[in-house]
Amino acid sequence: MPISVQLCTFLDINKEDGFMRVPCQKYSGREGAEKELACGVVKTSMYISPQGKVLPCMTLGGTAIDAQFDSMLEKDLSEILKASHYRDICNVKMGDCIRHNEKCHDCKCRLKCGAGCRACGCGETGTDYMAIDEECCSFYLNGWYEKALEMIGKYQDRLPKRQSGAQRKETDREEDIC
Question: Is residue 54 within 8 Å of residue 73, measured between CB atoms?
Answer without folding.
Answer: no
